Amino acid sequence: MDFEFIYAKIFVMYNITPSSGIKAELNIPADKSISHRAVFLSALCPQKTKIYPFLSSDDTEATLDCMKRLGVSCYRDSSSQDNLYVQGKSLYFPKEGEAKLFAGESGTTIRILTGLLVGQKFSSHFSASTYLSRRPMSRIINPLSEMKANISGNRKTIQGKENIYPPLMIEPVPQLVGKEHKNKIASAQVKSALLLAGLYAKGQTIVEEPHKSRDHTEKMLKNFGADIKINNTTITLTPGNKLRPPKEIFIPSDFSSAAFFIVLGLILKNSQITIKNVNLNSTRCGLLKVLKRMNADITIKNQKNAVEPYGDLVVKSSKLKPTIVEPEEIPAMIDEVPILCVAAAFANGRTQIKGVKELTVKETDRVNSMLVNLGKAGVGIAKKYYGQDDLKIEINGSRNYKGGEFESYGDHRTAMSMVIFALTAKGPSSIDDLRCINKSFPEFMKIVEKIKKDED
């Protein structure tokens, strides 16, 4: 691929040339969300669990580092780095003295692991890197505190909003208490933290969501033998069952990572891309439904109905139509909204993506990052508030865009979305920094380079 590396004092500038028709079969790395959860649950059982293939990324390495600091043995197979073994202990980690943990930039690590730490018998100091230290934590602290957890953090005002931010201090308590939570926002991380804390609580923990968010934690708890009942958007966990892991946990390819190449295959003329063994969990791949509504030519083959269903996706170039995405659809595609914005830019007409306020508190304000970047390339895009302080994105799409000088904002999904856009533009583009992609998908640029080389 024709990449030019321009070294500056602070970052590396990447120049990207447009692509043409692509024919490719891709293997995308393992699902990040499931990789985290497989480690967390395996750590709570006094058996050895094989997790394969395990995603190696900055975020998952942060989780492994935390578990090792808590006394849990995690190691890779010498014959295959894709195989991870976790030698768990029990519900209570064998840690003496204060645990000093570092989440890096992994919001999944700090939020979900906090749900396990509040039930431990030791104190924890949980710090994070720059971007994550600016992400609000009250959404887990408040409901966990209602369960009698003892958590404090750095209370301050960022961009006019007062909240509690990392580092977090977690102190042991005599007994957590189960509670019924009615979450105002459908968040898989918040739900997961509460359910894992419920393993240590006296009485049931009940979590009710306004819309169903991704359910990997519920599926995995059930697979580990936890007493958990699911009734649409209400989950009830009753503590007491001894967790017993399966001997092996297979992790399909990450749908959120596959989404970039799904959209590339749709918007790049004369293309066909097959992506193998992609996670097809219905709470995770809401983007598929939206894209098919937009006239996307996507076929599912070789589907397997395992604990996490998966199959092969065959994607062909399509003339996309605009659509309206409703707020209740967002939880099943929360990480895919940036790349949906790219797809909408190539749909002839106005697309509305409602209920995106949650995107303003991700690694960056993803609503803003996509508005600025796509606006530079000539896309008609705007954000509008509606209802009671909710937010939507409106995009007036066409198919003819110039390149641009894009910014990653230190956000992996913004960066990858703009790389895909740049491959379809009418001229060369640049992006200021791609190192943030290592957070979730270190192989992304290698795959881009490979399919570009095959095209040539």
Describe the structure concisely for a colleague:
By secondary structure, the protein is an alpha/beta fold. It has twelve helices and 26 strands. The chain has two domains: 4-29 and 253-455, UDP-n-acetylglucosamine1-carboxyvinyl-transferase, Chain (Alpha-beta prism), CATH 3.65.10.10; 32-250, UDP-n-acetylglucosamine1-carboxyvinyl-transferase, Chain.
Describe the structure.
The protein starts with a strand and ends with a helix. A hairpin with a 4-residue loop joins strand 1 and strand 2. The protein is built from twelve helices and 26 strands. The N terminus is likely disordered. It folds into two domains: 229 residues, Enolpyruvate transferase domain (UDP-n-acetylglucosamine1-carboxyvinyl-transferase, Chain, Alpha-beta prism), CATH 3.65.10.10; 219 residues, Alpha-beta prism (UDP-n-acetylglucosamine1-carboxyvinyl-transferase, Chain), CATH 3.65.10. It has 456 residues and is α/β, with parallel strands linked by helices.
Secondary structure: elements and pairs:
Layout: E1 4-7, E2 12-16, E3 23-27, H1 32-42, E4 48-52, H2 58-69, E5 73-76, E6 84-87, E7 99-102, H3 107-117, E8 124-127, H4 138-146, E9 150-158, E10 161-171, E11 176-177, E12 180-182, H5 188-198, E13 201-202, E14 205-208, H6 216-223, E15 227-231, E16 234-238, E17 248-250, H7 255-267, E18 272-279, H8 286-293, E19 297-304, E20 310-316, E21 324-325, H9 337-345, E22 349-354, H10 366-376, E23 380-386, E24 390-397, E25 405-406, H11 412-424, E26 429-431, H12 444-455
Parallel strand pairs: 3-18, 4-17, 7-8, 11-13, 12-14, 21-22, 25-26
Antiparallel strand pairs: 1-2, 2-26, 4-6, 5-6, 8-10, 9-10, 14-16, 15-16, 18-20, 19-20, 22-24, 23-24
Helix pairs in contact: 1-2, 1-6, 2-3, 3-5, 4-5, 7-9, 7-11, 9-10
